[in-house]
Amino acid sequence: MTERLTVGVAARLSRYLQVLTQARKMGKERISSQEIAEYTNINATQIRRDLSTFGRFGKRGVGYRTDALLEEIRQILRTQGQHNIALVGAGRLGSAIASSPIFAEHGITVAAVLDNDPEKVGSRIGDLAVSSMDDLVDIARERNIIVGVIAVPASSAQDVADRLVGAGAKIIFNYSEALLDVPSDVNVHTSNPAVDLLYALYFHLA
Amino acid sequence: MTERLTVGVAARLSRYLQVLTQARKMGKERISSQEIAEYTNINATQIRRDLSTFGRFGKRGVGYRTDALLEEIRQILRTQGQHNIALVGAGRLGSAIASSPIFAEHGITVAAVLDNDPEKVGSRIGDLAVSSMDDLVDIARERNIIVGVIAVPASSAQDVADRLVGAGAKIIFNYSEALLDVPSDVNVHTSNPAVDLLYALYFHLA
DNA sequence: CACAATCGTGACGCTTTGTCACAAACACTC
DNA sequence: GAGTGTTTGTGACAAAGCGTCACGATTGTG
Question: Which positions 147-176 of B are in contact with A (Cβ < 8 Å)?
Answer without folding.
Answer: 147, 149, 170-171, 173
